[in-house]
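Colleagues,

Please find the record for the two-part complex below.
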Amino acid sequence: MPEKLITLVLHGGAGTILRSEMTPEKEQRYTEALERALDLGYGVLENGGSALDAVETTVRELEDCPLFNAGRGSVFTATGGHEMDACIMDGRERQAGAVSLVRNIRNPVSLARLVMEKSGHVFLAGEGAEEFARQQGCMTEPAGYFHDDFRYAQWREVAGSDTVQLDHSASRAGGMAETPLKDHKFGTVGAAALDAQGNLAAATSTGGLTNKRFGRIGDSPVIGAGNFADNSTCAVSCTGSGEYFLRGVVAYDVACLMEHKGWSLAEACREVVHKRLLRLNGDGGLIAVDAQGHFALEFNTEGMYRAVRNSAGLRQVLIYGND
Amino acid sequence: MPEKLITLVLHGGAGTILRSEMTPEKEQRYTEALERALDLGYGVLENGGSALDAVETTVRELEDCPLFNAGRGSVFTATGGHEMDACIMDGRERQAGAVSLVRNIRNPVSLARLVMEKSGHVFLAGEGAEEFARQQGCMTEPAGYFHDDFRYAQWREVAGSDTVQLDHSASRAGGMAETPLKDHKFGTVGAAALDAQGNLAAATSTGGLTNKRFGRIGDSPVIGAGNFADNSTCAVSCTGSGEYFLRGVVAYDVACLMEHKGWSLAEACREVVHKRLLRLNGDGGLIAVDAQGHFALEFNTEGMYRAVRNSAGLRQVLIYGND
C-alpha cells in the first residue's frame, strides 16, 4: 500500500440516467457543474484543509447549482414549496449534525454543520431548525430563489394528486403510487473526503421527492442511513429510494462490514449496493472513501452523477453505468 | 437450545434511578404500571398474536401511563407544549414506520404503525405527520390530556432558560447546558418481542427532553439508532442520551455484531452498551430479544425500568442496577 492519498468523491444523484436520453448540451452542463464542485472541494484538501471543510464546500456548490435536487435546485413539495434535508459527519469522533424539512435555507449542509458545532444536539427539524438557523445568522433566501421552471413543470404535472416523484427515477417504492417516469434520477447530492491528516468526513443534502407530503423524511439526514463517517472505517454518502436506505441502515452497513469482517471498502460497498440493498428492493447508489484513500462509486441503477479526484492525479467525472 | 420461547421485554427509561431516592409508594406505582404493560403485551403473544401487535400494545399502555415520558406523560417543550416521537419495526421484512415532533396524538406508536402500513413512506414529521394522522382517523387529545402537574413543575424550573433536561438524568450530553438533576431518568418507553411464529418486532416512543427547542429529534424515531428489528438477528429498543445513540447507530450495532461476528445477543448487547456506547460517552440502555427467545436488558446507568416475560414461566419487573 502506498502512502495515503488525499481524496474527494461526490455524487449528484443516481437513477435511470441513460446516454440515449441525454443531449450533448445537457451532458456538458452536468459535467461542468460536477467538475466545479469537485475542484472546489479538492482545492480545500490540497491546501491542507480538513475533510470536513472539503465536503461542506463541495455540497454547498452542488446545493447552489439548479441542476441538482438540493438547495437551490430542490424539487417542489405538494404545497408548492421546498423542504430540504442535510447531514454532515466528522470521522474523527463521529460528531454529526443534521437538519430536516427546512425551508428558505440557502445551504442546508452548512446549517447541519452549525447544528453539529453549536446546538448541543445532532438532529433538528422544521420550524425549530429554522429558528436555530436565524439565531445563528444562517443565510436564507426568498421562495423565488428556489424557483426553477423545470422543477415547477415537474411539480405541476403531479400537483393535486397523491403521486410523489422520486427525482428522477422509476420508483420501486412499495406502497407509493406509480410515479411518472419523466425524469428518472434520485435527487440527492453528497461528498466524502480523506484529508492530509488522515481524517474522514461525509455530507449529504437533498430536496426530497417532488410533490412530497406529510413531512416525509428520507435517508439523507439520517446518520447511518444516508450519511456516515468514522476514521476507523470509511466515509459514505448515499442516494436512492430513501425508504429502503432507512430500513437498510445503508451507510453504516458499509462501515460494519469493514469493521467486523475485515472487508475492503470496495468489497463492502459492492455487497451493500448489489446484494443487501437489492434484497430490500432498494435502488440507488453511494460514494465512499476509506482512511487509505481507497474509494468506491457504486450503484445498482442505470447511472449516477459522480466524480473523484485524488493526490495520485486521478480526476474523473462519470455519469452512465458503462462509463 | 430448547424450543423457541415466546418472549416480551420492555423498558420505561434508564438513568440515575436509585433505591435511596425511591419511596415504597412510588416504587409500587412504577412496578404495577410495568406489570400491566408486560401482561397486556404478553397476552397478545400468548393468544397467538404477532410480535408487531404485542409491542404496539405494550407501548400504547406505557404511553397512556403518566409515569413515563411518552404519550400522555410526555415532558414539556420550551414553548410549554408536547412533541412526541415514535418508531415501530417488523422483523419479517424490515418494514418500519416512524413519526417525529407530533402533537396531540394519543398514541404515537400507533401512528408510526399507520405510517408503515398506509403512507408508502417510513418517516413522517411535524405538521405533515399530523395531517396524515387526521386522514387516517388517528385518535387525538387536547393539550390538557398531556398536562401533568409533576411534568409542569419540571418544566417551570427550566422554562425561559436554555437548559434542557433529559428526563430524568444527569446528562453527559456534550455541549448541552448543565441540567438540573432533579429527576434522573431518560424518558423513553419501548418493547421488543418474539412471537409463536418466530417473528420479531420492536417499538419505541418518547416525549423527548424537558424544555427542548428547535425541533430536536433524538434516537427514538430513528431506525437503527433507537429501534431495530430483523428476524435474522434481533429486535432492539433503546433509551438514553439520544444524541449518542444516533451517532452510535446503537440498535443496528447490536444486530451487526450478531450477524457479522456470530456473537450471541447477550455478548452483542454487552459490547454495545458497556464498550462501544461508552466510547462515545453515551449513557443509557436497551432491551432486546433474538429469534430463539434469548433476551437482554442491558444498561450502563444506575437503573432502568424494565421487565421480561416468556413462555418458560419467567415474569420479572426490575428497576435498579443491583436487582
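DSSP finds eight helices and 14 strands in chain B.

Comments are welcome before we finalize the supplementary table.
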